[in-house]
From TrEMBL:
Gene3D superfamilies: NAD(P)-binding Rossmann-like Domain
Stated name of the protein: UDP-glucose 4-epimerase
Residue stretches making up the NAD-dependent epimerase/dehydratase domain: 3-182
Cited InterPro entries: Epimerase_deHydtase, Lipid_A_modif_metabolic_enz, NAD(P)-bd_dom_sf
Amino acid sequence: MRIIVTGGSGKLGAVVVESLRAADHTVVVFDKAARRGEGVPVDLTDAGEVLDAVAGVEDLHEGVDAIVHLAAIPAPGIRPDVATFENNVLGTHHVFQAARRAGVRRIVTASSETLLGLPMTVPPEYFPVDEEVTLPNSTYSMGKLLEEQMALTFCRWDPALSITAMRFSNVMVEEDYAGFEAWQDDPAVRRWNAWGYIDARDAADAIRLALEVRGPGFERYIIANADTVMRTPSAELAAAEFPGVPFRRPVEGTGTLLSIDKARRELGWSPSRSWRDAQG
Ligand SMILES: NC(=O)c1ccc[n+]([C@@H]2O[C@H](COP(=O)([O-])OP(=O)(O)OC[C@H]3O[C@@H](n4cnc5c(N)ncnc54)[C@H](O)[C@@H]3O)[C@@H](O)[C@H]2O)c1
């Protein structure tokens, strides 16, 4: 496939671009931070630029089969809330609208685990937390919800359109794993997302599978690694930090408390990395 990756210069994007190229897809990066030769420095909040660049860019592409939309301010608290809202929600709208006008019918878009009620100040109703939970607690997260809602609407307007929203857990690259040791003595430090994480390479695998296997329509998936960031068993962590929260099914050992059952079942995805493998 010929694929545009927005945010391809970012933390997750760089790994996704490498992974898609390794699978023989042709990738064009759109990122306002892209350096010459690395991609096109498109500002996604500029509707005209996005529409034109999705339709074609001289010497680079004359149309694509799919878009992986990762560009965003990636968390609350990085920029003023209104800047995060404007950048992320407007940019996502313009990407979806440009795809619609240019006839691109396959999109994978970055949503966020924040929609699962993070920072979990109010305990979740049950474990493992799944896609039925949609509880934004920040402007960033509300923006991601509006983006999922836009995706649903664009798919309703065009029954041939496929949009997959990935509710990524906290994205990690290999260099981050050395820092995990510091969390082991205090479960409270990573309580805010129920000790989840996603290795960028496993996230890239999920994106590639969604591009390859999903049919038309909208779906959302939690994408997290199969284990937590902790050595303490998950049931013990939950009992200490979220007493009384029931389990809908048992979670063995250090298994994730963020349900990835839907992604396993429907995408055939299975995360294969763990921070534990990087420990010396
Ligand atoms: N990092 C995480 O833990 C995490 C967790 C869940 C979801 N996500 C989502 O995953 C995606 C990727 O996150 P990341 O960690 O790689 O972020 P990042 O900040 O490393 O990369 C984002 C990239 O998007 C580009 N960008 C931002 N606004 C743009 C605009 N208006 N026009 C063009 N380019 C723009 C930036 O230049 C940057 O290169 C984001 O959508 C983020 O919300 C991230």
